[in-house]
Every structure is written in C-alpha cells, then in structure tokens.
Amino acid sequence: xxxxxxxxxxxxxxxxxxxxQVDEGEVTIAGRRVSNTSPQLCMSAGLARTFQNIKLFTRLxxxxxxxVALTSGQRDRAEQTAAIDVGELLAWFELERIQHWxxxxxxxxxxxxxxxxxxxxxxxxxxxxDEPAAGMNAVETTALISAVKxxxxxxxxxxxVIDHDLRFIMTLCQRIFVLDAGEIVASGLPxxxxxxxxxIEVYIGHERSKKHAGS
Amino acid sequence: xxNLVQSAKGALLLGAIVALIAVAATLFxxxxxxxxxxxxxxxxxxxxxxxxxxxxxxxxxxxxxxxMGIAAYTVAILVTPIAIKKTALANAPFGLAGMEFGIxxxxxxxxxxxxxxxxxxxxxxxxQTGTPASIATLALLVIVHVVIMNWVDLTRGPRAIYGVPVKxxxxxxxxxxxxxxxxxxxxxxxRWGLQLRAASENIAAASAMGVRIKRxxxxxxxxxxxLLGVAGVLFSLFVGTISPRSFYFDLTFLTLxxxxxxxxxxxxxxxxxxxxxxxxxxxxxxxxxxxxxxxxKLPEMFGLTGVFxxxxxxxxxxxxxxxxxxxxxxxxxWRRRSQDRAAGGDVS
Lengths: 215, 348
What we know:
CATH topology of chain A: Rossmann fold
Strand order of the largest sheet of chain A: 3-4-5
Order of helices and strands of chain A: HEEHEHHHEHEHEEHH
Number of strands of chain B: 2
CATH architecture of chain A: 3-Layer(aba) Sandwich
Number of domains of chain B: 1
Number of strands of chain A: 7
Helix content of chain A: 40-55%
Order of helices and strands of chain B: HHHHHHHHHHHHHEEHH
Largest sheet of chain B: 2 strands, antiparallel
Shape of chain B: globular
Number of helices of chain A: 9
Number of domains of chain A: 1
Distance between the termini of chain B: 31 Å
Shape of chain A: globular
Strand order of the largest sheet of chain B: 1-2
Mean pLDDT of chain A: 84
Mean pLDDT of chain B: 91
Strand content of chain A: 5-15%
Oligomer: heterodimer
Low-confidence stretches of chain A: none
Helix content of chain B: over 70%
C-alpha cells in the first residue's frame, strides 16, 4: 500500500485493527468482523501490526518485548500458522546479541526490527507494517527488505506493507495498491503500477512537487 | 519458567536482608528498638503492596493506606474481647458487640473484607488511567477515613479502639514481609506482571498484543490491597490501639516517599527505600529532640523529620528520578553487568 503523506494509509491500518472506529462499511477476516471491536479481538482474529511511530516497551528488554506478545496469547494456539519461539525470532532479526538490552537503548533500525519481531510473535495470519523503513539508512533498508521477504515463507503469514517510498515498495511487494486522498487510485503488479499514468500523475507528481518545494 | 527461578532468587536475596534485620533486632536490640523494627516491617509490607500496583500498572496510588485501615479496623472489631467491647463498642451493629472471634478467624475475615472491597472499588477504578485514576485513589482514602470517623457505633469514630489483643510478634511480621517480597517479585516477573508493565508504558501497543489491560490492572490492585491488609492486621495486633489518624495522610506519604526514593519499578526499590527512609527518619527523630553529641548539646529542632522527608524526596527527584535502585531489580542489574563483562569489549 503506497500513497503520499495524508493519503490515509495509517488511518486505514488503524481502522482495520480497531484502533479507530469506522463510520461506514466493515472489516472482516475469514468472515469474522473485526472493525469497531477492540485491538485485542483483532489480534485474536489473526492481525498483528507495527506502528508508524515506534511503540516499543522501552523499559523492558528486547527479549521481554517479544515475551509480552508470546504470552498474551488469547489467540488459540492451534489457530496459529506456525510455532514460534523467542530464540528463533531473535535470530531471524539479528537481535540475539542484544536481547538483554533495554528496548529504549536500541538504535533506530533495531527498534524497527524488534517491533516487527514482536508483532510476529503473535503468530498472525496477517502482519501489517506501518512505514517500516521510515528513518532507516540504505544499508538498514536493504537488510529489512530481505528480512520481510522471508517472513511469508517462514512464518506463513501475509504481509501488508505501508510506505510512501515508491522504490522500497516496488522492491518488496508483489501486489501494490496506490492510495490518494482516501481512495484507491490504482492496483496491480509492480510493473503495472510503474506504468500506470494515474499513479505517475498522483504519486510521482507529489514527489516532484515536494522536491521543488524542498529545493 | 527460568524467569521465575531468577525471580525467586532475587526475592531470596531481599528476603535475606529482611531476615537479617529481624534476627539482629531479636537478639541484640532493646524493646524500644524492637518496636521500631516491627513498625518498619509493617511499613515495608505496605510499601511492597503499594509497589505491586504502582510499579506494575504505572498509576500513582494515594489510596493504599485505606485498605490497611479497613483490615486493621475489621480485625480489631472482631478480635477484641467482649468484656472490653461492653465499654468500647457497646452499640456495635450486626450484633458485633456480643461477638468475639478467634485470632485466625478474625484475620481471615479482615483480609477477605479488604479483598472484596478492593475488588468492588477496583472494578470501577481500572477503567481510568493517569491522573484521573490517581485522583480516584485519593478519593478512596478520604472516603474510607470519613466513614471510619463517622460510623461511631462500629469504629468509635475519632476516638481510638483499645484493648485489641497484642498477638503479633516480630517473627510474624518478618515472615509476612518476606512472603510479601516473594509474592510481589513473582507477580512482577510473571507473564501478567510483564504484560501489565508493558501496558503501563504503551497502551496502544499492548492492546494490539492482545493484553487484557483492565483485567490485569484489577488483579494487581486486589493483590496490592491484600498485602496492605496484611500490614493493617499486623499493625492492629501489635499496637493494640488504633485510631483513624493512624491510617491517613501521614502514613500515605511516608510509604509513598519510601517507594519513590527506593524506586517504584522494582521490589528491590521498595525494600531499599523502606530501609533508607526508616534509618533516616529515626536519626532525624533522634536529632529532633536535641540530644548531646560528643559533649555538645544540640538545640531542639522540631519538625526536622518533616524536613528530612521533604528534602529526601526533592533530592531524589532531581538526582535519581527513578529512585535509588532505578528501573530494575538488584539481581537483574548484577546479571546484566556480568553479561556485559562476558560479552567483552563488545559493549561500550
């Protein structure tokens, strides 16, 4: 899911995970309504998410952050898509060495990765990542892309990524939706999106005007 | 599981400190100092009880002493001999004037009453967080005080209830304090404690993890009240005379100061804060009366204990906002240090 700032990307995730109430329509997962319920119910329906502004438990250690998610387990264990343990998550996101550090003491990139690891510990069917690459440098972004790409195969869950960085989304995603001013203006494979005139107009146009404004 | 083993080890360490104090007091101290040590144990249990809720749920609590008062009064009313009740509580309702219960029955009923009231109050309170919740706890303290002051038939109002059998010993107080340390530590490090601490930092993230925040807050609240109930029962059965003033602002702020100075986020903080503040308080109380030191007669300095309390809190806020111990338990700090050392120069 891609779109310029203010397109409604985070709002959409917040609505899906019941952090925000919706006025019209409803969100269902496998026939189960999750909109206008509670974040807890969304979690047990199989949704896990990260936040645009990282929301870690900074006074807890890296390991404890993941343990909170693992033990809150209202989700029926049998329903989980894969058995997950702390050690494997730490290894997957290269957090083993710093597992006893306070989450608040981590570098920005590590905080982002820990947040994803914590969300995965819920054993979700869908993982929603809200601007996971925001504020990362090129090296961190490349590492993130390879970690996220492997998630679907190893942890067996669908991944929805929201970002405004076109290149990041193009490299990472198999199917792309373009959002502008609260509406989906295009959807399809990366190649189709790249060539879609409306996307160029809406999205690239934004980028250009932003660049001009910046220069 | 290994977490809880670590947790029990940490509790053992703190329990050993308390046991040492109790043994030393029993063997070497004069009755006057034994009395101070007993009151220290009672305050310690109260501070640990306060920590269970405040440290894990992250809500400042001013109402904890209310539960101590409820338990103290309940046990006093139940256990006092009928002969004394004839003069002291002749009009006690529910036929209590003509009843006298055994010590264990009284204690059990007192704790039960405390827990039930805590559950009812807590069910409403846990919907709030932050300042509104703290104000609600303050209201609880005032309400309980006003009820005790005005339900004269049951509580003798502002006058003291006397003649409560003195059954509590220093040994019992120390045992209860050590038990409280274990309970508080195991709760803190259990999955529920961990989830609650997570929620106290970030409600949105904890909700998205499926943490049932209100339920956990209520559990911590009731557990906290139960520990304060134990403190109240011990106080009542040791002092033998209780009045509403014993369970109001003075004790509320003394115990709060102990916890804040030690460190609200850990049981170690509760224990160390209680020790430090008690020692400081007793020294200033000694100086307050104008003693002679090395031949020099010091002037009387009334109010010195109050100054000590205030200055300690202010200094603590400025120099160590998370308390003397900080955010972690002592054993956690030691373990992390040794892990860092094992990691070599990796951690700078």
